[in-house]
Amino acid sequence: MSQSENCSFHDVDELMKTVQLAVHIPTFLLGLLLNLLAIRGFSSFLKKRWPCYAATSIYMINLAVFDLLLVLSLPFKMALSHVKAPLLSFCTLVECFYFISMYGSIFTICFISLDRFLAIRYPLLVSHLRSPRKTFGICCAIWVLVWVGSTPIYSFHGKVEDYRCFHNMSDGTWSAKVFFPLEVFGFLLPMSIMGFCSYRNICILVARRDHTQDWGQQKACIWTIAASLAVFVVSFLPVHLSFLLQFLVRNGFIVECRAKKNIILFLQLSMCFSNINCCLDVFCYYFVIKEFRTDMMAHQPPRAQLVLQDTMTTMAKGRKLCLEEGNLGLNSTADTSS
Question: Do 23 and 152 fall within a single domain?
């Protein structure tokens, strides 16, 4: 997001002020509400101690926390993109929160997809691996990974005096040793894992359609997998493609001014709209909760059976009470005759 002497990006910055206001304000309000509700909803599943839902609930809470962190960073990102931060350290902190939340979401979604694939493909083998403690440990490892991976952010602006957050980044930020590990391990590898797992999951579930009695539950699972994959691709593919194009610009492979301006516009637009991911994840939450409820309904006895059980229990209690009263009466008669 640099500005050369012969190519001004002022008109792009002015346009993005309007776009950010139109996108970030509703994203902040909706994202704050939806993610707080998601944390509350999945926490209720954990409190009820349903072991079969614990692993997925912990992953979903972790994803909602990352999304919430992104939401809380949006007002600062929007303001500091256009005015100079009072301290460079404060600017770095906001950038850390923003990128940590982005890549934390990527890794969490990747592990959710991998966990679901192992559970569907090897249910007996991984049943002991999906304990709440181990899932919580994986989520903690994701936090450590993204925090350690955020160290290049501390040198985003180098020794630049006229800095702005998310702008005027140093040449070292766009060096090959920083860019390629970010692209490969931060996006391409998670996307490949998620794409493979999602494809295999859907194929396995569809193949079981004629050999299972709980197709409603498996259909809900298919919708969950498809929604997660769609949200992932729509949210993160454009922004990482724009990172690649900007890498080519900053390393001298693209020098034409109009191309630079188009790439800068694409980069800022893709980053702006990728923030909507914190609201789009609600579709994943919806289908997961729907899957939970479908599974619970499938394992509940029919209403008629519940009524019959309740009637039989009541009748049994009535017989027991009559027998106790009869025995009491016989005992009383025996006492009187004696």
Answer: yes
With b meaning 16 or more CB within 10 Å and e meaning fewer, what string describes 154-191? eebbeeeeebbbbbbbbeebbeeebbeebbeebbeebb
- Inter-residue contact 275 to 21 (CB < 8 Å): no
**Residue pointed to by tokens 């499938």:** 298
pTM of the complete model: 0.80
In a domain, 276, yes or no: yes
124 and 163 together in one domain:
yes
Whether residue 263 is predicted with pLDDT greater than 90 in this model: the reply is yes
Task: Look at residue 106 in the predicted model and tell me its pLDDT.
Answer: 94
Cα 29 to Cα 26, 71, 279, distances in angstroms: 5, 8, 10
* Residue range(s) defining the domain that contains residue 196: 10-299
44 within a domain of the structure (yes/no): yes
Say if CB 334 and CB 326 are below 8 A apart.
no
- Per-residue pLDDT tens over the stretch 161-196: 667 788 777 777 788 888 999 899 999 999 999 999
For the chain, percent helix, then strand, then coil, each to nearest 5? 80, 0, 20
**Gap between the Cα atoms of 261 and 251, Å rounded:** 15
- d(CA 253, CA 244) in angstroms, rounded, equals 11
Pair (37, 18) in one structural domain: yes
Per the structure, the count of domains in the chain is 2
Measured CA distances, 182 to 70, 226, 249, 285, 298 (Å) = 19, 26, 17, 27, 43
Tokens of 337: 């005759």
CB 11 within 8 A of CB 278: no
Q: CA of 208: how far to CAs of 204, 221, 294, 297, in Å? A: 6, 13, 17, 20
Among 27-41, 208-222, 295-309, the range with the most confident prediction by mean pLDDT is: 27-41
As a whole number of angstroms, the distance between CA 166 and CA 157 comes to 9
Nearest to residue 276, comparing CAs of 1, 77, 30, 18?
A: 30
Which of 72, 111, 29, 41 has the alpha carbon at shortest distance from 285?
A: 41
DSSP state letter for 251: T
